[in-house]
Amino acid sequence: MTSNHVAFFIMISHVVDLINHFTLKFDQLFNLIRSADVIETLKESGYNSTRILRENILSQSAMQKLRKGEMIGIKTLEQLY
Predict the structure, then answer these.
(1) How far apart are CA 40 and CA 36, in angstroms?
(2) Which of 4, 5, 27, 57 has CB 3.0 to 4.6 Å from 52, enough for a Cys bridge?
(3) What is the distance between the alpha carbons of residues 81 and 71, in angstroms, rounded to a whole number?
(4) pLDDT tens digits, residue range 18-76?
(5) Residues sharing a CB contact under 8 Å with residue 47, sequence separation 6 or more, in sequence order
(6) 39-47, Cβ contacts within 8 angstroms, sequence gap of 24 or more
(7) Residues 76 and 58 sit within 8 Å (Cβ to Cβ)
(8) pTM over 0.70
(9) What are the domain boundaries of the chain?
(10) Cα–Cα–Cα angle for 50, 74, 25, rounded to 5 degrees
């Protein structure tokens, strides 16, 4: 094996490490978002469930997921922002 091959494998190893690191960070972020009491925060800001659904701020399925403490999609997060 030439030194170019060794350098290539080392580089690939570093890329895999970076991917694993960022995947872990994204998983931690989504767990944090999922566990946050989003509905309560919205209520405190004047948005009850009826208003959220009537004004199409969030879909019915997104509201159900939030009520159950399940993960919501990135598009739902964008709507909340």
Answers:
(1) 9
(2) 57
(3) 16
(4) 776 666 666 666 666 654 677 778 888 898 989 989 998 889 998 888 888 777 777 77
(5) 57
(6) 39/63, 39/66, 39/67, 42/80
(7) yes
(8) no
(9) 1-35, 36-81
(10) 130
User: Cβ contacts of residue 48 below 8 Å, gap of 6+?
Assistant: 42
Contacts of 37-45 spanning 24+ positions with Cβ under 8 A: 38/66, 38/72, 38/80, 39/63, 39/66, 39/67, 42/80
Inter-residue contact 50 to 61 (CB < 8 Å): no
